[in-house]
Amino acid sequence: MTCPTCGKPVERGGNPYRPFCSERCKLIDFGAWLNEEYAVPSEERPPLPDDTAHPEAPAAGGGTPRDSH
Hints:
There is one protein chain. The protein is mainly α and 69 residues long. 17% of the residues lie in helices and 0% in strands. The model has no long low-confidence stretch (mean pLDDT 81).
């Protein structure tokens, strides 16, 4: 097996960083995920139209006016 970051051979037994060869390569890979350099492919649906304004929805502040006595 080779390290996915640097390509060096990785020892099978006793390596706490496996599949990486070292902590450095593990952290480089983790940083790439955090920087969104990698992405998991997905089949995203197109965004729905903006439906924040419904004719049946109450106006902002909502509810019915209160009587003030």
